[in-house]
């Protein structure tokens, strides 16, 4: 038994060394702005909550487009869409609480309706009475929920691999699973191996060859923003699967559903599920793309969005 105790001791020492070598401290938001928050980025204060957003395109647009990103992403995920859509439409995108440069909520509340209230607060601040609301994954869940609780504010919906249907989750990236485990979740607030970020991107891309160093840098840097790792753990612990899913059938706004056929996070069959529940909705599948099709191939995925928006005018 003496050799076993020695072995355990050696393993503990090696683990402590590995942890110390892998430790990545939080980064102050000021240190990240020079790369990720330059113009057209702006920052607004909403009741003490710093909000990072970009507001582009013609100000005379009567129904602007608002883009909501998914878990662990940021407003940069929409760069391709925003570049095209803002040529003719006003496009607003923002970092949700606990992600990107916006940072964590002071009250640590990350429930679905807390996110909806946050989005509506942003719309009020920008004096946007009625918008086209588009969202990916978590952002899609927030978008359809907003359309059900504040229908007068949402003119049209674009759901991109949206979360929220019962039994639609296929798999959860390793980092998200670890964040939900009490001890490991706390440990993840100290560690962020770059390999874990790469693994997370491989899980959400249909073609891993599209992942480059610049993309990894962005996700890595913004995850390290002060408080974001703690916020992710809190958000995942507060997550209620299929919350308010019964309200989806009450959506009456024209709705476009986009989905990656290689989505390994949310079952692509969920696209047909949304289509069945939302009267008159349109569904477009991208067979070779994954969970973030708008980011993976913005040029291809924005085309049906442009057609959908043109039909509304």
UniProtKB/TrEMBL annotation:
Residues 64-298 form the AB hydrolase-1 domain. Gene3D superfamilies: alpha/beta hydrolase (3.40.50.1820). The keyword Hydrolase applies. It holds the Pfam family Abhydrolase_1. This is Alpha/beta fold hydrolase. PANTHER family: ALPHA/BETA-HYDROLASES SUPERFAMILY PROTEIN (PTHR46438), LIPASE-RELATED (PTHR46438:SF11). Keywords: Hydrolase. It comes from the Bacteria. One of its GO terms (molecular function) is hydrolase activity. Transmembrane segments: none annotated. SUPFAM superfamilies: alpha/beta-Hydrolases (SSF53474). InterPro entries: AB_hydrolase_1, AB_hydrolase_fold. It comes from Rubrivivax albus.
């Amino acid at each position: 038994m003496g050799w076993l105790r020695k072995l355990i001791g050696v393993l503990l020492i090696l683990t402590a060394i590995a942890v110390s070598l892998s430790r990545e401290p939080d980064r102050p938001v000021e240190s990240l702005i020079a790369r990720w928050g330059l113009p057209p980025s702006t920052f607004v204060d909403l009741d003490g909550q710093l909000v990072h957003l970009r507001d582009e395109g013609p100000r005379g647009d009567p129904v602007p487009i608002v883009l909501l990103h998914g878990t662990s992403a940021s407003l940069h995920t929409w760069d391709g869409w925003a570049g095209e859509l803002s040529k003719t439409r006003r496009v607003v995108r923002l970092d949700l609480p606990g992600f990107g440069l916006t940072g964590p909520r002071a009250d640590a509340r990350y429930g679905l309706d807390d996110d909806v209230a946050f989005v509506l607060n942003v719309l009020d601040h920008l004096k946007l009475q009625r918008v086209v609301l588009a969202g990916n994954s978590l952002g899609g869940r927030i978008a359809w929920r907003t359309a059900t609780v504040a229908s007068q504010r949402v003119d049209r919906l674009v759901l991109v691999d949206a979360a929220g249907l019962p039994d639609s989750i296929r798999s959860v990236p390793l980092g998200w699973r670890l964040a939900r485990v009490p001890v490991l979740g706390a440990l993840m607030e100290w560690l962020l191996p770059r390999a874990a970020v790469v693994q997370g991107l491989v899980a959400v891309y249909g073609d891993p060859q599209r992942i480059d160093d610049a993309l990894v840098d962005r996700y890595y840097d913004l995850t390290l923003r002060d408080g974001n790792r703690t916020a992710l753990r809190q958000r995942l612990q507060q997550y209620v699967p299929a919350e308010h899913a019964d309200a989806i059938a009450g959506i009456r706004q024209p709705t476009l559903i986009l989905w990656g056929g290689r989505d390994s996070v949310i079952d692509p069959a969920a696209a047909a599920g949304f289509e069945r529940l939302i009267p008159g909705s349109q569904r477009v599948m991208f067979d070779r793309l994954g969970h973030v099709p708008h980011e993976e191939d913005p040029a291809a995925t924005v085309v049906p969005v442009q057609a959908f928006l043109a039909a509304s005018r």
